[in-house]
Write a structure and sequence with these properties.
about 260 residues, alpha/beta
Length: about 260
């Protein structure tokens, strides 16, 4: 017999179910609110001064908050109405009147062709159902000569570490899709009609207790993650820089893309 609730909701509904109740936690999350990638995005947006920017999969809204002082309008777009409500409330608190919110999926953007000078997406793509379709939609809504900045966790290029990462991600968050590797992202971006202008690889330390608490990971799954860590090879442990309390580090990628 299938587990209760199995098969009765779509992938998108599952993502909303996981993240909606935690909207305030993601607005307040230090991991999401700070970072060298956000600093680099700020410089890029400040230089480009886009008339209209789309924050695709906005989550807690930190891309929107970073971009808003330098853009004419920012559209914070997400699956979760709860996330969007939290972003709108925080934007009001910060006095950022040029942030609008819109609900929907990445694969079907409710915007006209060439609607945005810039699209930015941070820590969202690993939840998308169909990454090539989503990238095709991004390409469609970006103006000719426009920019797309993609920021996400990436998988190692070697299979053992890749498998480890995907497994712990899924245990932590059952709505997880996939962390793609840098080579996969390059191929996907180019196939969608983008040209890679610049990439930046960074490391991100995840403090274990807050990492699992933020998404309300079940205790059974927390124990399974710790068990996987305890049984990992020395090579995997070294790559992810395991710490005594379970904290570890992962790879992230920022890709600056232009329409080809």
């Amino acid at each position: 017999m299938a587990a209760e609730g199995a098969g009765v909701r779509s992938h998108e509904a599952h993502v909303v179910e996981m993240f909606g109740p935690q909207a305030a936690a993601y607005v307040a999350s230090a991991v999401h609110a700070r970072g060298a990638d956000l600093d680099a995005l700020k410089s890029l947006v400040e230089e480009a001064r886009p008339a209209r920017l789309l924050d695709l999969g906005c989550g807690g809204g930190h891309v929107s908050f970073t971009a808003a002082p330098f853009a004419g309008e920012v559209v914070a777009y997400d699956l979760s109405e709860d996330m969007l409500g939290a972003v709108a409330a925080e934007a009001k608190t910060r006095g950022l009147a040029n942030i609008a919110t819109r609900q929907g999926v990445a694969e079907r953007l409710p915007f006209a062709d060439g609607s945005f000078d810039m699209v930015a997406s941070r820590y969202s793509a690993h939840h998308w159902r169909d990454v090539p379709q989503a990238l095709a939609e991004v390409r469609r809504v970006v103006k000719a000569g426009g920019q797309f900045v993609m920021m996400d966790v990436i998988a190692p290029e070697w299979p053992v570490a890749d498998t480890f990462l995907q497994t712990v991600e899924l245990l932590r968050d059952p709505s997880h899709g996939r962390d793609y590797s840098a080579s996969e992202w390059t191929r996907l971006a180019e196939e969608a009609g983008f040209r890679v202008v610049r990439t930046a690889h960074r490391r991100l330390r995840l403090e274990f207790a807050s990492w699992v608490a933020r998404i309300r990971t079940q205790e059974l799954h927390v124990a399974a993650i710790r068990s996987l860590m305890a049984g990992a090879s020395a090579d995997v442990a070294a790559h992810f820089e395991f710490e005594a309390d379970g904290s570890f580090s992962i790879d992230t990628l920022t890709m600056e893309l232009e329409t080809a």
